[in-house]
Write a structure and sequence with these properties.
70 residues, single chain, alpha+beta, globular, 4 strands, 4-stranded mixed beta sheet
Length: 70
């Protein structure tokens, strides 16, 4: 289980809000992220983000490849 966060910015090429695990080297700074919760995998974290209104949530390809759609 890990803590997951969503990037509040959509500056990536696909315009998505990316979900990152707590140990991701691409984790956004404190002012650019929102805490999602404690999950066993990236897919559950992305589902939680979508339920919170982040319709374009996607998993980070580096730390949540199982939830990355591109």
């Amino acid at each position: 289980m890990k803590h997951y966060y969503i990037n509040d910015n959509t500056t990536n090429p696909n315009g998505n809000n990316e979900v990152h695990s707590e140990d991701c080297r691409y984790l956004p700074s404190l002012i650019n992220r929102t805490y999602l919760g404690y999950f066993s995998n990236g897919k559950d974290a992305v589902s939680a983000a979508k339920a919170k209104g982040y319709s374009k949530a996607d998993g980070c390809i580096h730390c949540c490849p199982e939830a990355h759609k591109g």
